[in-house]
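Retro notes, item 3 of 5
We never archived the inputs for the 3-methyl-2-oxobutanoic acid complex last cycle. Fixing that now. Sequence and ligand:
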Amino acid sequence: MTKTDTDRSPKANKDHVLIFDTTLRDGEQSPGATMSFEEKLEIAGLLDEMGVDIIEAGFPIASEGDFAAVSAIAKQAKSAVICGLARANFKDIDRCWEAVKHARRPRIHTFIGTSPLHRAIPNLTRDEMAERIHETVTHARNYCDNVQWSPMDATRTEWDYLARTVEIAIKAGATTINIPDTVGYTAPRESADLIRRLIAEVPGADQVIFATHCHNDLGMATANSLAAVEGGARQVECTINGLGERAGNTALEEVVMALKVRHDIMPWSTRIDTTKIMNISRRVATVSGFNVQYNKAIVGKNAFAHESGIHQDGMLKNAETFEIMRPEDVGLSETNIVMGKHSGRAALRSKLNNLGFDLADNQLNDVFVRFKALADRKKEVFDDDLMALMRDSAVEQANDRLQVKFLRVICGTEAPQSADLTMSVDGVDRQVTATGDGPVDAVFNAVKKIFPHEVDLQLYQVHAVTEGTDAQATVSVRVEEDGKIATGEAADTDTVVASAKAYVTALNRLLVRREKSAPNSDVKSVSYRDVG
Ligand code: KIV
Ligand code: ZN
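Structure as it came back at the time:
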C-alpha cells in the first residue's frame, strides 16, 4: 500500500472545509461538455493554483482518453490530492489506481448505488451489496491510504441500510465518506440532519471526514451543501459554474463565497484564493461550451452590474449599499481601456490579462490578427467581443478535421438561398454550392454535401454579444448522433459565418467523441451510471 500525504486529520480541522472539485468528472459528464486532453490539464492546473484541496480528475476506466488525462493530471499536480472515480469492482479500482498512483497525493473514490432503485440495477440483495462494499473498499485500501467511498443516491436510501453500509466502508478502511444527493432530491434541513445523524450513530464516524455531494435539480444544491456543513460535513463536492448533468452540481464559487461573506454565521474557512474565481469560470465556460447564464450568482455577467438609477446612485455614494462583496474579491477588475482599430498589441495583452487570459507571444500574435479584423468591422470592441474572440481562438484548433475556409451566401426575398462554401476536410480543400430554405439552411446543406453525415440538430441559437447593428452574433449549435451530443459556438459580425463555424465546431467535437468510443480502444466507453 502506498502511504500518501493525505488530508489534514478530521479532528484537527473542525473549522476547515475541504473543497473537492469534480468539474473534470461529474461536470464533464454533462451531455456536450466534453473537454480535450489539453483543456483538462489546463483546468486542473488552475484548480490546483486556486487552492482546491481535492481534484476529481476523471473516471479512468471510462475511456483511454479519461485514463490518459487522469494520469497526466496526477503527474502535474503540485498541491491538490488527485482523485479518480471507480465503480465497485476490482477492474475499475485497478485501473483507477494505475492512473492516480503518479500523484504525490492520490485518492481512489469508489461508489455503488445503495437506494432500492439503484440496488435493483446490479440485482444484488442487501447482504450481497454489503459484502461487495467490504471487498472493494478493502481492495482500494490495499493500494492507497486515501480512499473515498460513496453510497450513490444516499438521500433516497433507507436509513438503516445507509448506516450499515457506511459502517462497513469505514471498517474496511475508507477515510472519506461522501453522501451524494444524486438526483437533487433533498432539502437543507434534511441534508444537515442526515450528516449529523450518521456522525452521531455510526460506529467509527468520528475517524473519517464526511463529504456532501449535491445536484441542483430543485435549485437547492448550494443550500443543501452548506446545510450539510452545518451538520458536520467537512468536504464539499462541487464544480466550477455548477457544471454537471441535468441542472448541474453545487457551484464551487457559490459555496466558497457564501462561507467567506457570511463567515459571521458560517464560521468555516476554505483554502480557495477567491480572486481566481472569474478567470477559471471563464475558462470552464469556454472549454465546455456551456455559457454562464447572465444572472448566475457570483460569476454571471450581471452579478455585479447595477442598472437602475436608484442602485447606481447608491453605488456611487457607497458601494456597500448594494454590494455584499467586492468585484475584486472574485477577480473582476474594471479597466478603462477602450479597444478599437488603433489599439496595439500591448493594450490587447493588458486587456486580455484583465479578462483572465495569459497568452504566449505566438498566441497573442494570432489573436491580434483576429482582433484587428474585428476592429475593422466594429467601432468599439467591448470585453464581451474579446471573450467571444477568445472562445473562437480556443475552438479553432489546428488539428480539427473540418475547417471553414471561404463562404459566400446569396440571399434575397426569393427562395431558394444559396451558399458557396470551401471547407478543408483532413487538410484537403473542397468547394460546393448548395441551396436551402434560408441562408443558414443553405450553409448547413453545403457542409453536408462536402462532408456527408447524419446528425440530429437539437439546438440552433443566435444572440448578439453586444448592442448595435455592427454587433457580433454568437451562434450556439447542439448536435446528436447515436446518443452522443456535441456543442459548438462561434462569434462573428456576420451571423451566417458564425453559424457555419459553430456547426463545424460541433461536428469536429462529435468526430472526437466518435474516435474516443471506437471499438478498438481497450476499454469500452462506460458511464458511471452503468453500475455493475
Ligand atoms: O451524483 C452522484 O451520486 C455521483 C457519485 C458517483 C458520487 O456523482
Ligand atoms: Zn454527482
